[in-house]
Specification:
Strand order of the largest sheet of chain A: 1-2-3-4
Distance between the termini of chain B: 58 Å
Oligomer: heterodimer
Number of strands of chain B: 19
Strand content of chain A: 15-25%
Number of strands of chain A: 7
CATH class of the largest domain in chain A: Mainly Beta
Number of helices of chain B: 14
Shape of chain B: globular
Helix content of chain B: 25-40%
Radius of gyration of chain A: 21 Å
Largest sheet of chain A: 4 strands, antiparallel
Number of domains of chain A: 2
Distance between the termini of chain A: 36 Å
Strand order of the largest sheet of chain B: 6-5-4-10-9-8-7
Largest sheet of chain B: 7 strands, antiparallel
Number of helices of chain A: 4
Chain lengths: ~170, ~500
């Protein structure tokens, strides 16, 4: 990361599973397919249709290409380099995002529920997301794309420790 | 029913007072939904506009209204069990709603004018809104006698020292707790009302409703008024007359809502009473108060007025419920806020880079309009567009500076505070223990400018309060100083 000097807080210690890159790339491919479908639709419109069609004829492929480059070639790698997570003795800590970065820290004593979710794509890559919820609607930590067994272990561990040291939780 | 021990067998559900049927008939409470249906029906049937039509329609609606009110009264039941409140209702689809007592966050007893006439009250019970819940967490028991309303309120909130006969840990049996008056509304504060947006909106909305009502009436009953010819002079006169009228209406509106406002502390509760026509009686638990907000609108800042809301865990964005000072001088507001949560001391301003960001945003719209306007003027000859753009740009300067001046954060020994906003400047003061998490955000541009936005996640109010664009280097210090315990030290670069 180029501008580490300006980072407001320290970064969490652990990086995600490398399979996450594959998952994000797949998501990028799927997104690109949608754009391609849209482009196809523009070319199916008859030639003599007026309005914005001539402009769209060249704009749509360009946009699709740009999206493909960013979503497949750049974004997964940047995300993988940015995303980090850590469970310390007192808190769960994550860093997410690719352009805008978000660090989220929640103390274990204030955890209300711990969820493990596995989306369809995540199952293909053997990944899972751990969501840690608190009393605040904004104080939710999501550790995306961990290996499924790691995710389950982390969730169990957090739930057990939250039970032990939970104070008022609000 | 096998729900749990909340349903003690033999405990019959109670009914509301039958007198409430009268109230609901008169106010067309249930029949109101029928009105949009009835109007086209009347149109299809082809009733002509005439006095007879109106009388017939009035009778039909009243009968329908009475029937609907009786039915919903008949099918409504409530019970305050040992551990939960159960409300049963619904005509065809029965719904049973059970709210455990320890999830109840506040009880409000209100008496609208018709209810008062018949000696009835309406009880609203606020249930805790969790991390995922919406704001629909409210039970309403409409139309119980005043004594029953007070009993319900006392019963639902008086389970502080667990169990009724237990004398509590401190050994004192609980007598009728002493009342301590914290704030009382001074009628002179009503003069602030014309400068507060929400009170100004009320008369405007009232006029709008009236106009719509007149338009919906059949032509026969609307007298054919031949008004004077519209002219520029008339328009100006109307506007000149409207300003004092609007101000007067705002004052009256504020008076109706806040009449004889009192805030008292009774035992472990904060009780607010207010209202001229509808008397409201709101109760909050002191133990659940985590802080408060001080909001000052643009107009209020002129006259140094402010309002105070309490932030209560589990109450969500229930603005009206948490309102502790609806309108008053800033000094009074600060004193009240100081009762809720310790003053964290003066706020630290944000670095000049934050000012540049505010100014850029404030000017961007005006500059864009100007640029577009130059083109419009050159091609279409619309000279007013760039002129408007320039005016917008110039107005953006004080706005950007104002928004920057509002920014601030600070942490004291037991509490912390963040402030932002320009149209409504809001300062949030919270206890350190209220923080359940921190979120630090940094966009690409913020990273360049050495800034970051820090959100304190709180299980009260809107769920998170942000210190926008503070110096990135100050973030670890602030988060550590503003949260209880040592966990926030995780953020400190090591």
């Amino acid at each position: 990361m180029s501008a580490d000097a300006a980072a407001p807080v320290r970064d969490p210690a652990w990086s995600l599973s490398r399979s996450a890159i594959g998952l994000w790339t797949t998501q990028g491919v799927l997104g690109t397919l949608w754009f391609a479908l849209g482009t196809l639709a523009v070319f199916l419109v008859p030639d003599d249709a007026g309005g914005p069609v001539p402009v769209l004829r060249w704009a749509a492929p360009v946009v699709t290409l740009l999206y493909a480059v960013v979503a497949i070639g750049i974004r997964p790698w940047v995300r993988y380099r940015v995303h980090r997570w850590e469970v310390t003795g007192e808190a769960v800590y994550t860093l997410t995002g690719w352009l805008t970065r978000t660090w989220t820290l929640v103390p274990i004593s204030r955890i209300q529920t711990v969820d493990v979710t596995r989306g369809v794509l995540q199952q293909l890559f053997g990944l899972a997301t751990v969501a840690v919820l608190t009393a605040s609607s904004q104080g939710t930590v999501r550790v995306l794309h961990l290996e499924a067994d790691v995710a389950q272990r982390v969730a169990d561990d957090l739930a057990r420790r939250a039970e032990l040291i939970r104070d008022e939780a609000t | 029913m096998g729900v749990d021990d909340a349903l003690v067998p033999g405990e019959r559900p109670r009914r509301t007072s039958p007198r409430v049927v009268l109230v609901h008939t008169a106010t067309f409470r249930q029949a109101r939904q029928l009105v949009p249906v009835l109007i086209p029906v009347a149109a299809v049937v082809g009733l002509d506009d005439g006095l007879l039509t109106i009388v017939v329609m009035a009778v039909v609606i009243t009968v329908l209204s009475a029937a609907a009110a009786s039915l919903s009264w008949w099918r409504f039941g409530y019970a305050d069990r040992a551990t939960a409140v159960v409300v049963t209702r619904g005509l065809l689809a029965r719904s049973v709603r059970t709210v455990p007592n320890d999830r109840i966050r506040g009880v409000e007893v209100e008496a609208p004018p018709l209810h008062r006439l018949l000696g009835l009250v309406r009880v609203r019970i606020d249930a805790a809104a969790g991390a995922v819940a919406t704001d629909a967490e409210e039970l309403v028991v409409d139309g119980v006698p005043r004594a029953e309303g007070d009993r319900l309120r006392a019963r639902l909130l008086a389970r502080r020292p667990a169990g009724p006969p237990a004398p509590g840990d401190d050994g004192r049996p609980e007598p009728e707790p002493a009342e301590e008056e914290i704030a009382r509304f001074d009628p002179r504060w009503l003069l602030y009302a014309p400068l507060v947006g929400s009170y100004l909106v009320v008369p405007v909305a009232a006029v709008g409703t009236l106009v719509r009502l007149v338009q919906e009436l059949p032509d026969a009953v609307v007298p054919d008024l031949a008004g004077p010819e519209p002219s520029a002079r008339l328009l100006v006169l109307t506007l000149v007359a409207a300003v004092p009228l609007l101000a007067l209406a705002a004052v009256v509106g504020a008076a109706v809502v806040n009449w004889r406002y009192r805030l008292v502390r009774r035992g472990g509760s904060l009780v607010a009473v207010r209202g001229l026509l509808t008397r409201r009686h709101t109760e909050l638990e002191v133990d659940r108060v985590r802080g408060g907000t001080l909001s000052e609108g643009l107009g209020m800042r002129w006259v140094r007025a402010a309002r105070v809301n309490a932030l209560v865990t589990g109450l969500g964005q229930a603005n009206r419920r948490g309102q502790l000072l609806p309108l008053g001088p800033r000094t009074e507001a600060l004193r009240l806020l100081g009762r809720l949560v310790e003053d964290p001391g003066p706020l630290t301003g944000h670095p000049p880079a934050a000012l540049r960001r505010r100014l850029f945003r404030a000017l961007a719209a005006g500059l864009a309009v100007t640029a577009g306007g130059v083109w419009a003027a050159a091609t279409l000859g619309w000279w007013w567009v760039p002129a408007a753009g320039v005016v917008l740009t110039v107005l953006g300067v004080p706005m950007g500076i104002g928004r920057y001046r509002a920014l601030g954060h600070g942490a004291g020994p037991r509490s912390f505070s963040v402030r932002s906003g320009w149209v409504v400047r809001e300062q949030v003061v919270l206890q350190r223990r209220a923080v359940v998490g921190w979120e630090v955000r940094q966009s690409v541009l913020q990273r360049r400018a050495g800034l970051a936005t820090v959100v304190a996640c709180v299980g009260a109010g809107s769920g998170g309060y942000a210190a926008v664009d503070m110096a990135a280097a100050d973030v670890p210090g602030f988060t550590t100083a503003a949260s209880s315990g040592t966990w926030a030290g995780t953020l400190t670069p090591g």
